[in-house]
Design goal:
The structure holds two protein chains of two kinds.
Chain A lengths: L3 E4 L2 E4 L5 E7 L5 E8 L3 E10 L2 E4 L7 E2 L9 E3 L8 E8 L8 E2 L3 E5 L1
Parallel strand pairs in A: 2-11
Antiparallel strand pairs in A: 1-3, 3-8, 4-5, 4-9, 5-6, 7-8, 9-10, 9-11
Chain B lengths: L3 E4 L2 E5 L4 E7 L3 E9 L5 E6 L3 E5 L2 E6 L4 E6 L8 E9 L11 E6 L1
Parallel strand pairs in B: 2-10
Antiparallel strand pairs in B: 1-3, 3-8, 4-5, 4-9, 6-7, 7-8, 9-10
The chains are: A mainly beta, B mainly beta.
Chain lengths: 113, 109
């Protein structure tokens, strides 16, 4: 089954404790992206990647890191999480170029206390 | 960047009613998708519709790219249709979907 998976689905952590949210897709997509969703602010892009070893900032990259060492994986790293990073996070993937359909993961609900 | 406006912001229906949700966008697009976010927060792909009309069961969507709008039709609504509906165009010059603020739909039994 074609899908985008994220882990963990739910996470409660404390300020400053490094964490990684994993994202994996099995559709051989070149493009992958991370979004965060906050009440009143909608979904905003954090980072995206057009292919292996190619990443770029989205609208709200501060406080996040990403890497793309393999085509199927695109982890989101919070080196020192803060309460303002409490949010619902989504990973997405698609074929690159020409406006192809994007597929979203199930979401990761992160709470930073 | 592209501006996206969805209307209405809130909609309350009785089960069985029909509805039309609208999405206006400010620039040329390569892609437009409609999503349903269920009460558990999951984003469900409804349509990938950069232009034309598509139907899937009780739902259908139409995008008129030259006039910069898209419509989502829900017929014979059910309580399970409740949630937030987002449209998200992809501008021709960009790489990200820009989400509208959504329409909160409540279907009462």
């Amino acid at each position: 089954e074609a899908q985008v998976t994220q882990n963990p689905r739910y996470l409660i952590t404390v300020t400053g404790k490094k964490l990684t949210v994993t994202c994996s897709q099995n559709m051989n997509h070149e493009y992958m992206s991370w979004y965060r969703q906050d009440p009143g602010l909608g979904l905003r892009q954090i980072y995206y990647s057009m292919n292996v070893e190619v990443t770029d900032k989205g609208d709200v990259p501060e406080g996040y890191k990403v890497s793309r060492k393999e085509k199927r994986n695109f982890p989101l790293i919070l080196e020192s999480p803060s309460p303002n990073q409490t949010s619902l996070y989504f990973c997405a993937s698609s074929t690159w170029g020409g406006g192809y359909e994007q597929y979203f993961g199930p979401g990761t609900r992160l709470t930073v206390t | 960047g592209i501006q996206v406006e969805q209307s209405p912001p809130d909609l309350i229906l009785q089960e069985g009613a029909n509805s039309t949700l609208r999405c206006n966008f400010s620039d040329s697009v390569n892609n437009l998708q409609w999503f349903h976010q269920n009460p558990w927060g999951q984003l469900i792909n409804l349509f990938y519709i950069p232009s034309g009309t598509k139907q899937n069961g009780r739902l259908s969507a139409t995008t008129v790219a030259t006039e910069r709008y898209s419509l989502l039709y829900i017929s014979s609504s059910q309580t399970t249709d409740s949630g937030v509906y987002f449209c998200a165009p992809l501008e021709t010059s960009g790489s990200r979907l820009t989400f509208g603020e959504g329409t909160q739909l409540t279907v009462n039994p």
